[in-house]
Batch of 4 targets.
Target 1
Amino acid sequence: MKKILALVLALCMIFALAACGKKAEAPASSNPADAIADEMTSKDGKYTVAFVTDVGQLKDKSFNQGTYDGVKLFAADAGVSYKYYQPANGDQATDDDRYNAMKAAVDGGASVIVCAGFMQGGALERAAKDFPEVKFVFIDGWSLGLPNVVGIAFKEEQCGFLAGYAAVMEGYTKLGFCGGGGGTNPAVNRYGYGYVQGAEAAAAVKGVNVEMNYTFLYGASFQASPELQTLVSGWYENGTEVVFSCGGSIFSSITAAASANDGKVIGVDVDQSGQSDTVITSALKGIGEAAKLALEAAMNGKWEEFAGADGAKTLGAAEGAVGLPTATWSLKNWTVDEYNKMFEDIKSGALAIDDNFENLASTEHVALNIVE
């Protein structure tokens, strides 16, 4: 468990840290995983490590890509073959489609398979039982009670809180939240609920009131869409200042709307500031590093130690696994030092954040407008 403490408090730099000793030279971008090909050719046609994507695109510059970056970095460092698999039928993929992708990975030689997203649960349980010799890493998952599966979840409410607090301390009082998964994704729901709590805490400190548009409309597939862009453009035109984009490729729709309306955006999962100058900060979690650590454990005979007795890990501030990016800090009215102090309070438990998103509601200083 101690090793997980390396999980990214400089989350924006996790890949730079993970890439030490990597054979390829660092790319021009700040992400060394960009220098590693997404697809490789194996001499024997077999691939030791596999990645099965969540819904959305592999190169979503968010959840899928961030997780696969960790897979690629591990494979490059370890000198093992790797391949990614996308379930058939895109955002309409069924459990059978996901299972077939996992089976294809097993048939292709994988001894460890990283599966991204909570929707993998049913297919993953079936595959893990059918292929007990293969180890499965379930990112954004939970314990399946199987010795060859480790589920890794995150305390998204903590970094969501920090993002909401940062936005209001920066001076924004008209906020928005757009979530992926149609309201059924627990990780996204925790992000959003934490965001509301953070906005409330900062508004109380400043003695201001906050208005927040909050929706899962048009985000169920985690894909960009004209409908979502139109919705968010309307928000900006009517005074919304900053929107938390919480759902993979929907980021493209939200930043397009922001760019057209001089609006601002909060990114998610990875540091998205390099993708749009509308981004003021990002709510981050160490998805790539978690995948990398699990792969290291699986390949180095430490699986049981890593997975623990129940086959589940929940990582948060205490493990350095969530936060805001400080290396690209652009906020003017809330400093890195102030952020670090709050982070330490969350880490120690002095500042507790509720993770039960069923409690989502307007608060004393935050008026929610839930758009359904």
Note: Residues 1-28 have pLDDT under 50 and may be disordered.
Target 2
Amino acid sequence: MEKTLILLKPDTVQRNIAGAIISRIEARNYKIIGMKMILLDMEILREHYAHLVEKPFFPEIVDYMTAGPVIAMIIEWENVVAGIRQLCGATNPAEALMGTVRADFANNIRFNLIHASDSVEGAIEEITRFFRVDEICAYERKIME
């Protein structure tokens, strides 16, 4: 089974739409094996957005991602990286397909609600960045599949 990391960004939390997005994840039958609300700091943002640190818009990313708490989640399922990215939609909400999180809820590219790992390898790195091993609740579904 693949795992991926999702961050529900501060605008998701502040707009009270985290539950609606989590419901979409659960409706796809994906399994949430880790979830917590956290405040991000410069150290973790520099690491997470290392590829953007030298860009002129990096301070805007920092302001955005420190504007309030985020909800970090680990999702597990077959082909979950691609599936969650499809569920999120294009980074620019104006280009996202209707029915995706960003098309349905995001206002603009700057406030795009959600981060999802872009590869299996990236997911492993990001999960390690945001979760300790004892915060992951791997379990088997015994009630229904």
Note: The longest strand covers residues 31-38.
Target 3
Amino acid sequence: MPYLIELLLFLAPFAAYGLWRRANPSTEPSTILLVLGAVGAVLMLGGAIWYGLSRSMEHSRDYVPAQLDGERAQPGPAEPRR
């Protein structure tokens, strides 16, 4: 069931664009709308790359999973590779 919801959320923008094209077959998207969409896509990709690079561990370290300490989860440290 969650996969169906994810698929529907993925397809929703395409369906909205298709409905808009069907309702307005002779109109084209304005240039400013296309530019804003391209700028948004570039910002999204840049932000995703920046976040991934800023949160990554060094290559010489190994990930240690979180440990349960009573009722609380303690984050695991990144340990040096052996």
Note: The CA atoms of residues 40 and 60 lie 35 Å apart.
Target 4
Amino acid sequence: MALLHPIKPCLWFNGQAEQAVAFYTNVFEDSRVLTTTYYGPGLPVPEGTVLTIEFELDGNPFTALNGGAEFTFNESVSFQVSCRDQAESDHYWDRLTDGGQESQCGWLRDRFGLSWQVYPEELNTLLEDPDPERAHRATQAMLMMRRIDLEMVRRAADGT
């Protein structure tokens, strides 16, 4: 049975939904805000405060919710950005770490605390190499990195 609508993540922010959506739609091409709803009277936040923003990033649907301070992001959920090549990977890494924090193995946290994995697609090919020794060397190299350096992973896989 097909779903009526695609599955989409709802991202919980503490009063920063508008800033986050502006940031993300600026980072990713083919992105746009679809609709915005507001808190009405008699609710625990001032009337007219943004409640939700429906938006798309590179054509993928998301909802941003100004839900309060009860919940925060952590690394147990992240968004993967599989890039065509090193240049594209570096582009998204630089944009998403602006005001954020580098982690390891291509992971980062953006300025809103949301976790992302940014890597060139070829990394998967190297990590899944049918030669287990090549795959192991590639994996070991990747585990030592913050930002993925595809050329270094290739050299490690080749044993050079």
Note: The chain has five helices and eight strands.
